[in-house]
Amino acid sequence: MNTDIAIRLAEADDAHGIAVMSRDHIESGLSWKYDAPRIARAIRHRDMVVLAATEPEGRRDALRGFAAMEFGEERAHLTLLAVQPAHRRRGIGRCLVDWLLESAVTAGIASIHLELRSGNQAARRFYRALGFSETVLVPGYYAGRESALRMIRMLRSPGPLPLAWRPPALGQK
Which member of 34, 73, 102, 115 is catalytic? Predict the structure, then answer.
């Protein structure tokens, strides 16, 4: 891991930088959906976690990467993940995903889902290395022009969580 990077919850001041990174590194060649107002709403949304990877002193102009994940009852959706090109392959993306995975396990999530551009081989290898499996190819997913590859990582079997505590049996001595 890169020790020069701190992972923290994103704040309202991070919305613009995250939106620009999304536009430049995720949505490149597509219409810009994740603009600053949408990112700001995600940061405030109770079912979303948006993380920022920054310089340890937390300078807003030092955004190196980010991730956004929406939590449901049993499923989470990794909506966005990007790392500045000059800072890739230093463990930042892995740290972001590890933080979200730990949060998902704590929240009792059964599976994490994501989509990526089917031609993005680097992202495909990255997610496979983190335990994600490919599920289906969705033609025209991105603006009707590009296919998406859906991936999943199972964290537990679907269904109700088993109770960790059970009362003692009555009548036993």
Answer: 115
